[in-house]
């Protein structure tokens, strides 16, 4: 039984079915659920992780999986447009941008280095004076996140995964063993193994994980620019704009004309059912960023806002492993705002954990009750203490 039909759970259910298990996928309704972290329209796919070669290699392996998925699907859901990384000062050793650039080159890639002149020529929407350095990683882009989750769920059902709609209430225990789940409507569902992949709800449903995991709210804004055709590849790419120093990242305009900009920062700890909306102070910060970096967008109307919930691990690493104190329980989460790009690997990683198989990633991503306090390399670490504002929910 897999609890949660986001990208972790949907991928796990499909892989476990392909390994011969009878699989039930429990979700509280309509995957991709509109409040899930892995829904929405887009997620960045990148290998850029500063000096962290582990995640560079994990992303490299995932990209091979995205290529395979694209070949197998009627239309591609991963778009390899390239990924634009901008630095607000000349790249220096130790910075996220410089170390990402160096790692890519050390690994045999050839990112295109950009100075202000090249930025202004190739990507005219940007204020070239603001970003004197940067590069384009050609092996990267974005994925249609909600469509990916929908496809994983539907493919699972086509191959025999049994869907059950319901809200998780508790694990079902028989002695020291987990033997299924109890739903909020009183139904009890039996299973030999339970995988909890509930995204930001994971530390709520499994509170003993809270020393390692927490639920964090992050703001996302969709803009409706007047001339969206100028804000699409090749002249406008998914971007990280001095991301470890500012938190800003975003995407090209979609066919509907909307353009999404998010903030990869510390966020605000919140219960995922009480996440609130995107507050006015964040919209003011966004306008300041646009005025400085993307002046053509400074007056673009806000089409929608969304509060995206991270299942944040204190060490920034995914958590995929068997709970050693609860026989029969596997946890798959800790996406920490950067887990979606690994979608093609998540199913095999969860299935290996359930079967007790070691793999090249399990040493770092496997079970732990706590970890060193650190963040993923692109994360902006200055806290944003603005409380969620329910009246401004978009």
Classify the secondary structure makeup into a structural class.
alpha+beta
In the CATH hierarchy, the third-tier topology is known as FAD/NAD(P)-binding domain
Give Rg in angstroms. Answer: 21 Å
CATH-wise, what's the superfamily? FAD/NAD(P)-binding domain
What global shape is seen?
A: globular
- Please count the helical segments: 10
DSSP strand count: 21
Largest sheet: 9 strands, mixed
Our estimate of the beta-strand percent is: 15-25%
Q: Mean pLDDT across all residues, rounded? A: 94
What separation lies between the terminal Cα atoms? 34 Å
| Number of self-contained structural domains | 1
User: Quick one: CATH class?
Assistant: Alpha Beta
Poorly predicted residue ranges: 385-394
The CATH level-2 architecture is identified as: 3-Layer(bba) Sandwich
Q: Assembly type of the shown chains? A: single chain
Helix amount: 25-40%
